[in-house]
Design goal:
By secondary structure, this protein is an alpha+beta fold. Among the domains are: 183 residues, Sandwich (Immunoglobulin-like), CATH 2.60.40; 175 residues, Peptidase M1, alanyl aminopeptidase, C-terminal domain (Zincin-like fold). It is built from 25 helices and 32 strands. Helix 2 packs across helix 3, helix 8 crosses helix 9 and helix 22 runs parallel beside helix 24. The longest helix has 34 residues. It is globular and about 90 Å long.
C-alpha cells in the first residue's frame, strides 16, 4: 500500500462532535472458562445530540466482539446499525438516548498493550491516545468529556485488587469467591484518561495533607517483593504535591492518589485521573539496583504525571493536534520541579543536551513537524520530542519574556477561564499574553513552523563601539519550504575581560521582571550598538539557552577559553567548553581521515583543570562542565559522518585527554570513591558523578581498567557498577564477555537490571557489538513482547551511530527484519524504533543505497500506519 493510498487526518478538517456523552457507566466482569481468561464489558452511555446537527452517529471500536446492543433498554434491530472493522455506525439515532453494548475482550492476547491488556496475572489499561476504542464502542476523542462510574467484578483469589479512577464508593463480596468494587470519578474527563487495574498486587500506603488541610491517601501498587523499592517514588510524589501548591497554587482534588507499577508498558507513565499507571523502571528503586539517573528520572516523571492533574486533566485538549498544550506545558513544569529539587543549572544543561540530541535531530530529519502538527497517518506518532521537549521550550520562552510572576498570573487566568474544558494551544497562549498585556501573534509561529531556527552572529568593535548583528533563518522542512521570522527572546550579557557583566543600555533591549536583559529578535536582521566601551567585550548570548536555536557563531578560540573560565552564566560556560572540545575532536577526526596525527591543545586541559579546582562549582556541575560532547551531539555539529574515521578520531582524542588529565583524575577518584555510598542527596550524587568521570578518564589513559573491574566486583551501588560495566565493555572481547556473564549471573532475576544488561552491550562501540546483539536476541531471557527489553536492546543498538552505520548495510537489513516482527506485535513500539533510519541521509552514498533497499523491502509489506508514516518519510528523504 502506498502512502497516497493511506488516509491522512488533517487539523484543518476538525469538526466538533455531533453528540456528547454526559455520563458513562462501565461494568467489567472478569471470568475464566476452560482455561481461557476473558473480560465482558458492558457500557451504558447517555448520549445527547449537539443542537443544530443531524445524521448518523459513529462510535469508534476495534478488536471488539459485540455480544449485545440495546437502545433505551430495547434490543437494537440489525437494520438500525452497521458494524465495521473500525467501529459502529448508528443510523439516524434520536437526539437523546441511552445506548448499552456488551463486548468480550481477551486481555492476555492483546500484545499491542493498548486498551485492556494483560501483564502477567494483572489486567490493566492504556487508553491514550486511542486505546479506549479497544475496550468498548465510544466517541474516542478528547473533546468528549463524561462523568464515569465503573464497577469491576472478578475472582477474589486471582484478582484481589480492583482499581479505577476517582473514589471507591463501594466494595463487597458476592459469594462464590467473587467480589466487586464501584468507583465514581466526580470530574468529567475524556476517555483517554480512563484507567482500570485488576490483579494480585501489594500496596505501599502513605498520606499527604494539602495546604488547605485536606488529607489525601497515597497508594503505590506493585508485587509484594518490590514494595521496599517504592519508597523514593512515594517521597517524590509528596514533594511534587507540595511544590505545585507553592509554585502554582494548585492542590490535589480527589481523596486518593494511586500509582500502579507494571513491567509491560509502551511508554514511561500515564496520568489517568487519580490512577496513574507507570512503567516499573520509573517507580522501583534501591541503591543496589538503580543508578542516580534512575532516581532522578523517578522523581521527574512522578512529578510530571502528578502535574498533569491540572495541566492535562482538569484542562484537557480539544484534539490530538494540540497535544503539546498539555505535554509541553507539563514537561516545563516537571523540569522546573527538578531544577528546584536538584540544581537549576545542572538540570537546565541536561535538558538542553536531551533537546539537542533528540529534538534538534528530529527537526533536521525526514520526520520534522511543527509543535502543532497539521496532519498525520497515526495519532500515536504525535508523542515526539518536538511535541514534548520543544513544546516545553516554547513555554519556557513565555516565562522568560514575562518573568515568573507574570507567568504565574497567566497560569491563574488559564485555569480561571478553562477549568473543566477541552481547549487548544491558542487558549493557553492567550491567557499568558492577556495577563501580561503582550502581543504574541508573531511568537505563535513557534507552534506552526517546523525546524530549528538559526541565528547568525556578527561582531564588530571599532573605537569605543561594539556592534552586534543578528540574522535569523530557518531551514526548509518537509511541507514547509519558506519560513516567516520567529520571535526569538535571547538573554544576553557582555562580559569584561575580568569576568564582570556590563550594565547594558540600548533602546531595543528589555529587562523582564527578574532583571534579565533580553534581545527580542523579530526581524530577519537586527543590529545593536553599545558605545563607551574601553575594549571589546566577550559576548554571552542566549544565556540559560533562552531560545531553542542554533547559533551560527565562530568566536576566536581565545574568547571561548575566556568564557569557559569565567562566564557568569552556567549554561554558556558549559557551552563554551563543549565548543572547544568539538573543535579538538574535529581536528582528531580530520587526522584520522587523512591518516595523520593530531595534538591536543594544552589550553583545553589547563581550562578543565581550573574548572575542577573551582570552589564555586559543586561536583555535579564540575563533571558536567568537563564532560565530552556525546556522539549524538557531535553528529549535530560536525559534517561528514564516517563511522570508522569518527571512531578512530574520537578514540584518539579520548586517549590524549585521558593521559593529560590522569593525575588529577587519579586524585579525584581516590578522594571521592566510597565517600557517599548509600546516600541519595544531590551532593552525594554529584560526588559519584565526578568520581566516575575520573574513572573514565583513567580508562581512556589506558590505566583504569583494573580499577574499573575492582569497582565492578566490590561496589554495593548500581551507579558505580553500571559505569564500571560500561567501561569494561571497551576491553578486549574476552574480558568484556566475562564481565557481561558475571553481571548476568548476579542480576538475571531482576528484569529492570536486565534491561541495563541488554543496553550496555548494545551501546558498546566494538567490532563484535553487532554479532553480540544478534546473539542476545536469541537469549532465553529476552522477550520481544516486552517494550522495555526491545528498547534496551534494539533501540539502544540503533542509537549506536558508530556500529549501526558501520557494517555495509548488513545492520539495516537485520533491523528491518526485526522491525517487521515487532510491528506485527506492537505498532507503537515499532514506530518508536523506526526513527533509526532518520539518520541515513548523513551516511555515505553506498550506505544510503543499502538503507533504501532495506526500507523498500519493509514498505512493500503490510505495516501498521504507525511504522509506515515514519519509515515512508525516511525513505522519501533518501531520494529515488
Amino acid at each position: 500500500m502506498t502512502q497516497t493510498e493511506r488516509q491522512k487526518t488533517y487539523l484543518k478538517d476538525y469538526t466538533a462532535p455531533t453528540f456528547q456523552i454526559p455520563s458513562t457507566h462501565l461494568a467489567f466482569d472478569f471470568r475464566s472458562e476452560n482455561g481461557n481468561d476473558f473480560c465482558r464489558v458492558t457500557s451504558t452511555l447517555k448520549l445527547q445530540r449537539r443542537p443544530g446537527t443531524e445524521g448518523d452517529l459513529w462510535l469508534d471500536g476495534e478488536e471488539l466482539v459485540l455480544e449485545d446492543i440495546k437502545l433505551n433498554g430495547a434490543a437494537l434491530a440489525a437494520s438500525a446499525y452497521v458494524r465495521e472493522d473500525k467501529g459502529l455506525k448508528l443510523l439516524n439515532p434520536p437526539s437523546e438516548f441511552t445506548l448499552q453494548t456488551t463486548v468480550k475482550l481477551e486481555p492476555k492476547k492483546n500484545t499491542a498493550l493498548e486498551g485492556l491488556y494483560g501483564s502477567g496475572a494483572v489486567a490493566l489499561t492504556q487508553c491514550e491516545p486511542q486505546g479506549f476504542r479497544r475496550i468498548t464502542y465510544y466517541l474516542d476523542r478528547p473533546d468528549v468529556m463524561s462523568s464515569f462510574e465503573v464497577t469491576i467484578e472478578a475472582d477474589k483469589a486471582t484478582m484481589p485488587v480492583l482499581l479505577s479512577n476517582g473514589d471507591c464508593v463501594e466494595r463487597k463480596d458476592l459469594g462464590g469467591g467473587r467480589h466487586f468494587t464501584k468507583w465514581v470519578d466526580p470530574f468529567k474527563k475524556p476517555c483517554y484518561l480512563f484507567a482500570l487495574v485488576a490483579g494480585p498486587l501489594a500496596v505501599l500506603k502513605d498520606t499527604y495533607t494539602t495546604g488547605s488541610g485536606k488529607k489525601v491517601a497515597l497508594e503505590i501498587y506493585t508485587n509484594e517483593a518490590n514494595i521496599p523499592r517504592c519508597g523514593f517514588a512515594m517521597e517524590s510524589l509528596k514533594r511534587a504535591m507540595k511544590w505545585d501548591e507553592e509554585r502554582f497554587g494548585l492542590e490535589y482534588d480527589l481523596s486518593t492518589y494511586m500509582i500502579v507499577s507494571t513491567d509491560d508498558f509502551n511508554a514511561g507513565a500515564m496520568e489517568n485521573k487519580g490512577l496513574n499507571i507507570f512503567n516499573s523502571r520509573l517507580v522501583l528503586a534501591d541503591p543496589k539496583s538503580a543508578t542516580d539517573y534512575n532516581y532522578h528520572m523517578i522523581e521527574a516523571v512522578v512529578g510530571h504525571e502528578y502535574f498533569h492533574n491540572w495541566t492535562g486533566n482538569r484542562v484537557t485538549l480539544r484534539d490530538w493536534f494540540h497535544l503539546s498544550l498539555k505535554e509541553g506545558l507539563t514537561v516545563f513544569r516537571d523540569q522546573e520541579f527538578s531544577m528546584d529539587m536538584v540544581s537549576r543549572d545542572l538540570v537546565r544543561i541536561d535538558s538542553v543536551i536531551d533537546l539537542r540530541e533528540s529534538q534538534f535531530a528530529e527537526d533536521d530529519g525526514p520526520n520534522a513537524h511543527p509543535i502543532r502538527p497539521e496532519s498525520c497517518y497515526a495519532v500515536d506518532n504525535f508523542f515526539t520530542s518536538t511535541i514534548y521537549e520543544k513544546g516545553s521550550e516554547v513555554i519556557r520562552m513565555m516565562q522568560t519574556m514575562v518573568g515568573r510572576p507574570g507567568f504565574r498570573q497567566g497560569m491563574d487566568l488559564y485555569f480561571k477561564r478553562h477549568d473543566g474544558q477541552a481547549v487548544i494551544i491558542e487558549d493557553f497562549a492567550a491567557a499568558i499574553s492577556d495577563a501580561n498585556k503582550q502581543d504574541w501573534s508573531q511568537f505563535k509561529r513557534w507552534y506552526s513552523q517546523a525546524g530549528t531556527p538559526r541565528v547568525k552572529v556578527t561582531e564588530n568593535f571599532q573605537g569605543d563601539t561594539y556592534t552586534l548583528t543578528l540574522e535569523q533563518s530557518c531551514p526548509s522542512t518537509p511541507g514547509q519550504t519558506e519560513k516567516l521570522p520567529f520571535h526569538i527572546p535571547l538573554i544576553v550579557g557582555l562580559v569584561t575581560r575580568d569576568g564582570k557583566d556590563l550594565e547594558l543600555t540600548h533602546p531595543s533591549l528589555k529587562k523582564n521582571t527578574e532583571g534579565k536583559t533580553l534581545i527580542h529578535l523579530m526581524e530577519p536582521k537586527q543590529t545593536f550598538e553599545f558605545k563607551g566601551l574601553k575594549e571589546k567585550p566577550l559576548l554571552s548570548l542566549n544565556r540559560e539557552f533562552s531560545a531553542p536555536i542554533v547559533l551560527e557563531w565562530n568566536p576566536p578560540v581565545e574568547e571561548l577559553f575566556a568564557l569557559y573560565k569565567m562566564d557568569n552564566d552556567a549554561f554558556n560556560r558549559f557551552e563554551a567548553g563543549q565548543k572547544l572540545q568539538q573543535l579538538e575532536i574535529a581536528k582528531f577526526i580530520d587526522a584520522a581521515k587523512s591518516k595523520s596525527t593530531a595534538a591536543l591543545d594544552p589550553r583545553l586541559i589547563e581550562a578543565q583543570i581550573a574548572i575542577l579546582n573551582d570552589a564555586r562549582l559543586d561536583n555535579a556541575l564540575k563533571k558536567k562542565m568537563v564532560e565530552r560532547p556525546s556522539l549524538a551531539s557531535l553528529a549535530q555539529s560536525l559534517p561528514g559522518f564516517d563511522s570508522a574515521a569518527w571512531k578512530t578520531g574520537i578514540d584518539a582524542f579520548r586517549r590524549a585527554q585521558g593521559q593529560a588529565l590522569a593525575t588529577v583524575a587519579r586524585d579525584i577518584y581516590t578522594k571521592l570513591h566510597g565517600k557517599s555510598d548509600g546516600v541519595l542527596t544531590p551532593e552525594a550524587r554529584g560526588e559519584r558523578a565526578l568520581k566516575n568521570w575520573a574513572l573514565g578518564q583513567l580508562c581512556n589513559a589506558g590505566e583504569g581498567h583494573a580499577l574499573a573491574e575492582k569497582q565492578f566486583r566490590e561496589t554495593s551501588m548500581m551507579v558505580d557498577q553500571e559505569i564500571a560495566f560500561a567501561l569494561l565493555m571497551e576491553a578486549p572481547e574476552a574480558k568484556a564477555r566475562e564481565i557481561a556473564s558475571n553481571f548476568y549471573d548476579q542480576w538475571n532475576s531482576d528484569s529492570l537490571v536486565m534491561n541495563k544488561w541488554w543496553s550496555l552491550q548494545a551501546q558498546t562501540e566494538a567490532p563484535w557489538t553487532f554479532a553480540r546483539v544478534q546473539e542476545l536476541l536469541k537469549h532465553p531471557a529476552f522477550n520481544m513482547k516486552n517494550p522495555n527489553s526491545v528498547y534496551a536492546l534494539l533501540g539502544r543498538f540503533s542509537d549506536n551511530l558508530i556500529e549501526f552505520h558501520a557494517k555495509g548495510g548488513e545492520t539495516y537489513r537485520f533491523f528491518a527484519q526485526e522491525l517487521k516482527k515487532i510491528d506485527a506485535l506492537n505498532p507503537q513500539v515499532a514506530a518508536r524504533l523506526s526513527g533509526a533510519f532518520d539518520f541515513c541521509p548523513r551516511v555515505s552514498p553506498a550506505l544510503q543505497a543499502e538503507a533504501k533497499k532495506a526500507l523498500d523491502g519493509l514498505l512493500a509489506d503490510k505495516l501498521s500506519p504507525n511504522a509506515f508514516e515514519i519509515l515512508s518519510n525516511a525513505r522519501k528523504a533518501l531520494g529515488a
